[in-house]
Write a structure and sequence with these properties.
Blueprint: E1 12-18, H1 39-51, E2 56-60, H2 74-79, H3 89-97, E3 104-110, H4 116-129, E4 134-139, H5 144-147, H6 158-177, E5 184-187, E6 192-194, E7 204-205, E8 210-211, E9 226-229, H7 234-243, E10 246-249, H8 254-270, E11 279-284, E12 287-288, H9 292-304, H10 308-319, H11 341-354, H12 358-367, E13 374-375, H13 377-389, E14 395-398, H14 405-420, H15 433-437
Parallel strand pairs: 1-2, 1-14, 2-3, 3-4, 4-9, 9-10, 10-11, 11-14, 12-13
Antiparallel strand pairs: 5-6, 7-8
Helix pairs in contact: 1-3, 1-14, 4-6, 6-7, 7-8, 10-12, 13-14
Length: 454
Amino acid sequence: MNSSRNHTNHMHLAAFVTAGPGRPGGWRHPAADRNWLSASHYQHIGRVLEEGKFDLMFFADILSVPDRLGNSMDSQLRYGSLGSLRLDPTPILASIAAVTDHIGLAATVSTSYLEPFPVARSFATTDHISDGRAAWNVVTSFQDSEARNFGNDRHIDRDKRYERADEFLEVACKLWDSWEDDALVLDPDTPLFAEPGRVHHIDHEGEWFSVRGPLNVARPPQGYPVIIQAGASPKGRDFAARWSDVIFCSHASLESAREFYQDIKGRAERHGRRREDVKILPMATPVIGPTTEAAQRSADELADLVPPLAGLSTLAYHLDVDLSGLPLDEPLPDVDVPGVQGHYKEVVEMTRREGLTLRELGKRYGGRVEGTFVGTAAEVADGMERWFTEGACDGFTVGAVHTPGAFEDFARQVVPELQRRGVFRTEYEGRTLRDNLGLERPAAGAWRSRRHGV
């Protein structure tokens, strides 16, 4: 396969994990482990992914049981759709840190309903106890059902929630910087526990937050935990290009992925960052079989496990649009989308390309398996290598059609194929997540170049 990229740079792999049922049909699969309330479930996945030399695993999260389809939780709970059961991911990271040594550990935390001090403290703690493997998937949230769990009738509008997120990240970085790197002395003879002159108040006074500081946790091993974000709207893309170390996205074609890649890299450069400082990892959900035909049969069987309303309830949540009044046997019409713009672009492209009805779209969206990544291990590796070498990504965020089996198949079958081709590591390069992603450790005050695109 011809390569337009120097293969001394390998792709990066993240795993998309949920602390609960993930895909609407996946939990019904005969091989699925449904032991979501046990730490051992997630620890096993962490060990499998580390065996496969993944850079990181990140846990998606939401703060409500969605009710966007027909103003009811019925479809979410009945079909095990997105958000029907979702554990707090932060303590799960700690349990995985205890049984792994290298894989990065990311949790999703919203900037719209929480406060900077406890969030900064939590991620600094995770970074310390994991020896520098923590990452924060920054979300702004967008659902009124989430707002109602925090004393508000409606969610913050899009522009305001990015303004709040911008200041939230500034405060978090100030708190991580409130201890100088050498502030913790631990000299029992002097005695000197910490040097007082190297621990500072931050005295932040802004539009959204008033925080005195300092943090009561020493500066994290990575300086700042790795920042992950998924922004698809113009405002979201700009925010992601300024703040993110890793960008998670979803595309229905190589062409749309390539456009997004070039746009984000260009925005990062305009904000004074290097292109290689932002890793773009689109979603891939492979289905692997001993033959092409067997893999396609597995994909079809998985699709059969997805009731259309299960996929539509997830889509309604992502778009923040009630789809219950639309005809199921007609295509998705043009709609105003207050939710995730990237998912809307993806389903519009899929609908137009394949002529899908809303009913068919519900099954496809609930399954979301793209043909590029259905096949033998070699064929899946072919598709991934093509996206990587043709400038559509820096690697992938790998989803699992069911857990843990799909992750096991990928780590033990596709990863060796990628390694054989020289596009993926055979060993971890460093100790911290930043080391393995090829990212510099931020010096104190590095946040100043990110705030408002300065």
